[in-house]
Amino acid sequence: MQLKNDLLIRAAKGEVVERTPVWLMRQAGRILPEYRAVRESLSGFKELVETPEFAAEVTIQPVDILDVDAAIIFSDILVVPEAMGCTYEMVEKRGPYFPATIRTEQDLKRLRVADPEEHLGYVLEAIRVTKRALNGRVPLIGFAGAPWTILAYMVEGSGSKTFSHARGLLYTNPKLAHQLLRMITDTTIAYLQAQVKAGANLIQIFDSWAGILSPAQYRTFSLPYISEICNAINDVPVTVFAKGAFFALEDFSKLNCEVIGLDWNMEVATSREQVGNSKTLQGNMDPCLLYSSFETIQSETIKMLKQFGPQRHIANLGHGVYPDTDPEKVKCFIQTVKEYSGIVNS
Q1: In the chain, which ranges are continuous DSSP H helix?
Q2: Catalytic pick among 6, 19, 26, 218
Q3: Does domain 7-284+309-322 fall into CATH 3.40.50.300?
Q4: Where are the domains of the chain?
Q5: Is there a catalytic annotation at residue 26?
Q6: Which pLDDT score is estimated for 20?
Q7: pLDDT of residue 1
Q8: How much is the pLDDT for 253?
Q9: What is the pLDDT of residue 128?
Q10: Is 26 flagged in the annotation as binding?
Q11: Residue 153 annotated among the catalytic residues of the structure
């Protein structure tokens, strides 16, 4: 199906665009009262993720309400460990919790390399339902977590300030860490390829806990597996977003992907110099900007657009939008990107 708005895809591929495309990480969710209404009608987060019709509904809400240039499928990176046999619970106001962690060879035997149709079919169906409902209005982004980030949760058992169990495993049993990373990578490749087949127009890999590793460990336990995933996705553009991995930007320039996401701690000019001109950059406004006045949001957004330049940029925040953000402030950010970049690019 021909896309009516293909700005995101063209910008990702480095083609000339009339204005900068804009979308937000975590746009499908917590800031919108319409999302909360759907969520409250169900038993909780997991039922929403696992019910294709509802997942599609909340995926499309930000396209209708915020007027973003792309939808991102409503799901979670932790569906992958669940599909592999390591189940999680989403605890209200605490986040994910894994009742059984993976810390020994014995634990590893409980896992499987997941089959996407059999174990993640609800996500693929949500993509198909969303695509039909969008009817080509905007592209649909599919995603998965990077293998290191998934390992961090499976070993730690929950979110953490230090991830000391996960990081400790890299020192005490690197062989086990690589075995687990291998299984996660094989699952993720099959899963993302299935997302593309189901209709995803672009894929994003989230390495949320990249920044807690040393550069040497990152190059050993994360980068090679991300590279494998990039090499396996050939039909659509791929974005790699590794939060906190400023030390790896030069390495990212060698990845077989089209877009590198920047968090708000990454300086734009330095990042461009390290990544080079052959990739599109995405980001990187501080989500906390959206707590400020409308005037400040406008001026800071224009400043960001000037730093990136009119081409090879996808406007976004440097992390997911925070749940207590006023949707009107989000609309101000999006509208400013569209209006200012439209003038500059014309």
Answers
A1: 7-12, 33-40, 45-50, 52-65, 79-84, 105-108, 116-119, 121-134, 147-156, 164-172, 174-198, 215-221, 223-232, 249-252, 268-275, 294-308, 327-345
A2: 26
A3: no
A4: 7-284+309-322
A5: yes
A6: 98
A7: 77
A8: 98
A9: 98
A10: yes
A11: yes
